[in-house]
Amino acid sequence: MNLGVIGAGYVGLTTGICLSSLGHKITIYDLVDEKIKLISEKKLPFYEKDLEELLDKTISSQNLIPTSNIDEMIKNTDGCFICVGTPSQQNNSIDLSQVLSSIKLVCEHLKKLQKNDYVIMIRSTIVPSSTKSHILPMVNQILDNSSYGLCLIPEFLREGEAVSDFMNPDKIVIGSINLKSEVFAKKIFESFNQATILTTNPETAEMIKYANNAFFSMLISFSNEIANIAEKTTGIDTFEVLRALVEDKRITTKIQDQKIKPGLESYLLPGCGFGGSCFPKDVRAILQYASAKNVNTPLLNAVMEINDERPSLIISLAEKLLLSLKNKHVTILGLTFKPDTDDIRSSPAFEAIRLLNDKEAKVFAYDPNLSNDSSKNKFTSFTLCSTLESSIENSDLVILFTKWNEFKNLDQNILDKFMNSPLLIDGRGFLDSSKFDENVYHKIGFTK
Ligand SMILES: NC(=O)C1=CN([C@@H]2O[C@H](COP(=O)(O)OP(=O)(O)OC[C@H]3O[C@@H](n4cnc5c(N)ncnc54)[C@H](O)[C@@H]3O)[C@@H](O)[C@H]2O)C=CC1
Ligand SMILES: O=C(O)[C@H]1O[C@H](OP(=O)(O)OP(=O)(O)OC[C@H]2O[C@@H](n3ccc(=O)[nH]c3=O)[C@H](O)[C@@H]2O)[C@H](O)[C@@H](O)[C@@H]1O
User: Fold this and answer.
1) Can you list the residues of the chain whose pLDDT is less than 70?
2) Which reaction does it catalyse (predicted)?
3) What region, left, alpha or beta, does residue 118 occupy, with left being phi > 0 and alpha being psi -120 to 50 degrees?
4) ipTM more than 0.95?
């Protein structure tokens, strides 16, 4: 099919590259010319594993056409995905302006080119009723005939797993205003035969996306609250507690004597808290939406409250171990909000750095994906090091924030080589404690 994508960010570019690799002819448009130029040169504007290889193939096969010309995109295509950002506003509601302006642009060009039967498919995350209350009235104002289609197809991919999540979706939710849009969207995804296709109205589709992100955020905050309680009694290992919970047959099912570990297992872990461009933004947005509708939300309020507290709890532990943080050399390992990405949006490491600065510690950091020269001058509140070793040299305390594989190599020998009195907080329970002296290794969710 001939399809367009507006917005060449994580979601848009992944959508464009993956669908073009499956044989669709995709024209991708972004406001930012440099992004389009980079993509034309087969380079990704961000890091995402496996995506560059596919980009190379799809540009070479001319199944993916990057353009800065919206007319070209509209002329080439029968429908397009809207994949622009929906960032938080000051009051935590979402800023719908990128969605509205990009759809307005599409509609104006459809009108100019007298193109009918076009289908607009929104992939951006938007709060319930955005389609009905804001987008549809605007579209109706510009397109006076009713031959167009409009639907919401939320995206559930995770950064770092974007290609595999896109290619192997468990569900495809299509919330349409009419049958035409539903039929069109179903045809795009007809080769994804392992996925459950859920067809519904736009409001339900909007809510499904928020329920999804709120649920996984809740599991993380649940795990962190259990950790807070466990830490008050020496010897309780929260990781063991939650591993045992997962064994419950209501969570881990058994099929023909084979235990099937649920995917949610990876969200039942204590740690430094969730970050990224979506969980914090989306939970806050649905809370703001509920509050505007006078709905009480004690559970989701607590999810955010527990999460917001995580960096300060880790810094309190650091202070307890070092007695005072003033002038202490503290190393942060991992700045991205999770491994296998270069995304630092709402990463808990940055809140920890802010707290360390307040306490006048000298902060050094290392992240495998941010160690190049172009990243160096971006940060002023800490020194970004280009190797793990240089970041821990003469350090008084190392705190692990992100589960990068490279950090798995850490052991007592490495700490002894570079630090005078080795001390480490494993903020994710990621390292093998047996590789460290007992008084050196401290992990979240466990008090010795
Ligand atoms: N990042 C993720 O893993 C996921 C994000 N989402 C949602 O998808 C949406 C997009 O997120 P990301 O891809 O992360 O955002 P992003 O910020 O990486 O990309 C957005 C892109 O849209 C472009 N853009 C903005 N206004 C435009 C306009 N008027 N015309 C053309 N291009 C325009 C920007 O230049 C940028 O390249 C958000 O609503 C987000 O909540 C949903 C699932 C996963
Ligand atoms: O709407 C979105 O943008 C996406 O948000 C999340 O995806 P993502 O933010 O890429 O990453 P996750 O792997 O889900 O992790 C989110 C955060 O939770 C943290 N986390 C995860 C698991 C855990 O046990 N503890 C924990 O703190 C991670 O470190 C990370 O900061 C969702 O998982 C996707 O389904 C969704 O499409």
Assistant:
1) 373-377
2) UDP-alpha-D-glucose + 2 NAD(+) + H2O = UDP-alpha-D-glucuronate + 2 NADH + 3 H(+)
3) beta
4) yes
